[in-house]
Amino acid sequence: MKLTDVCQDYLHYIQAIDRKAEATIASYTNDLRQYVQYMQTCKIEEVENIDYSHVQDFLEYLRQDHYDEKGQCIHKKKSSASINHMITSLHVFHRYLSMTYPKLLNPVQNIRTKKAVQHLPVYFNMQDIERLLDSFRDSDAEIMDKAIVELLYGCGLRVSECCSLMLQQVYLEQGFLRVIGKGNKERMVPMHARCKKALENYLTKVRKQRYARSNFVFINAKGQEITRQYIHVMIKKRLLALGLDERLSAHSFRHSFASHLLDGGADLRVVQELLGHSDISTTQIYTHVQNKRLQSVYTSFHPRAKKHKED
Questions:
Q1: Residues 6+ away with beta carbon under 8 Å from 16
Q2: Residue 182 bears catalytic tag
Q3: What's domain 3-100's architecture?
Q4: First CA to last CA across the chain, in angstroms?
Q5: CATH architecture assignment, domain 126-298
Q6: For residue range 92-140, what is the model confidence (pLDDT) as tens digits?
Q7: Domain boundaries, the chain
Q8: Which segments of the protein form a coiled coil according to its record (predicted)?
Q9: Known catalytic membership, residue 251
């Protein structure tokens, strides 16, 4: 069986039958494209001819920089997290093949992910949030952009959730959003007064005047659904203009939402529910952020800790 053919079958399956999220499909598509390209360079066209050593060689290829004859880098080495993601993608793909074609051997069965270094999330402080929100002007584009930022920070939305938010998921009078997250899991998220006001301002002043081609909340001047790229670029430009930490991104608002709630005394389980995390261990990363900050404050201000630091 041609590797390219079974890849297409698998991608069709996760889209039409398994109904994976758009971002998940795009991620798997990208990983499998790299996998197929590598196997083709090794003259491997048939999926039956892939064995354990081929997969190991592919992963080793990803771990290194590669250059052409002119010394130009044609492939930058992948991070441990990216390698782990690739291994997961290959496991899911070959598991599908094993179920569909029971006689087919699974070459990734004994390949395991390695524990990656856990990086604590970068988040905004309150002063930066206020500066950012105060920087928006009263033009149509910036009224929409401000509403987006208010939802990302005020409701802890993922960028993809913000893009896919529909009018029927907004309950302005009650001050709630019905968010559909990963795996089509629904959750109700409250909106605070300023968040609600920014969204209402956009809906009445901007969206109402645009020719909407769909029920998406956020649409561009052509009436089309905004993209994740639009939000990422918009946020990066604004952060750059304000001279804020270059490590911050659109996703940092979600980190800030969680961290600021925990700082205010919110229960971890409540934060888990608001974020839409299936596993509380995913939410616990924010307690590590708190602990690191507490350690920093303690070291800086406790007289005995300061003395020890100076010694």
A1: none
A2: yes
A3: Orthogonal Bundle (1.10)
A4: 68
A5: Orthogonal Bundle (1.10)
A6: 999 999 999 998 999 999 999 887 666 677 889 899 999 999 999 999 9
A7: 3-100, 126-298
A8: none
A9: yes
